[in-house]
Amino acid sequence: MKKDYSEDLREIRDIMQRSSRFISLSGLSGVSTGIIALIGAFLAYQIVFKDTEFLVYNQVHLPYERMVNLLLIASGTLILSIGNAIFFTRIKTQPYQHHGWDVASKRLFINLLIPLVSGGILCLLFLWKGFVGVLPSLTLIFYGLALVNGSKYTFSEIRSLGIIQIILGLLAFAFLRYGLLFWAFGFGLVQILYGLMIQRKYKL
Amino acid sequence: MKEVLKNLDKAFENRIRLGIMSVLMVDEHIDFNELKTLLGVTDGNLASHLKNLEKSGYITYKKSFLERKPNTNYTATKKGKESFMKHINALEQLLH
After folding, report:
1. Which three-class secondary structure state does DSSP give residue A139?
2. Which residue segments constitute the domains of chain B, with CATH numbers given?
3. pLDDT tens figures, A42-52
4. Nearest chain B residue (CA) to A7
């Protein structure tokens, strides 16, 4: 009898861990990161890419100053986006007492991070070697892969968002000259639309 | 000891019903098919246990259409969550 009950408890714990998804992701963070991405893309175009021939398939020589600007814009966009996501998630979890950093959120975070970090490092290597043209495409593809990978641990909509980003990334490679446009479309508009959709569907 | 035993809920004596409630404690809602894969049970078996919990007022469901296929989403009620917590506390007390 006693053994039976401990078996029950073990099973409960096991099921709770297996099933928990991180559902505190805020749709608003999707909207705000989308807006940040649009601003980032605009700045990158104005400051780095305008009137240049960098978006091509071969190696280009990126002047040091432009390289630094591009890195500044990219890291600024990234940091602001992550900060935003954390901020909106905090707002959403606060009234419910359960703090955001539990098994589910950790699992989501790690699974997002694996493709994201490997893609990020690859992009830096490409940038370093002067292959600037592939960057919009690669960032879209790896971001999409990260979303697909993480979607098992949060809203299922994230999966289709990821697939859209991957397709846009492939298109961005096929039409390299318009890479930045695809990038703004994927990270900006699509992300904003998905954010609004999730916000509407899951608002508490 | 008698007091503790009284807090054990008949509704949760079955493993599958216990499983359903465990899921609904951490997931706000879950649909029939997800629940089925998670618990590894058959359609009929799961349906009858869901009905049982629903009759006790522990869970509710919402029917909707997802890409034209009917989709049933289950949620734990407040009463269900409270009973479940009481049940788990009783289990823990019995083991200590």
Report:
1. helix
2. 2-95 (1.10.10.10)
3. 999 999 888 88
4. B15
The closest alpha carbon to A28, from A18, A36, A20, belongs to: A36
Task: Give the tens place of pLDDT for each residue, A102-152.
Answer: 667 778 889 999 999 999 999 999 999 999 999 999 999 999 999 999 988
Instruction: State the nearest Cα–Cα gap between B55 and chain A, in angstroms.
Output: 22
DSSP state of A95: G
For chain A, the residues whose C-beta falls within 8 A of a C-beta of chain B are 2, 5-6, 8-9, 11-12, 15-16, 18-21, 23, 104
Tell me: the pLDDT tens digits for A13-45? 777 777 767 767 788 889 999 999 999 999 999
pTM across the whole model: 0.69
For residue B10, give both structure tokens: 């008949």
Place of tokens 């999966």: A159
pLDDT at A97: 47
Chain A residues touching B81 at Cβ < 8 A? none
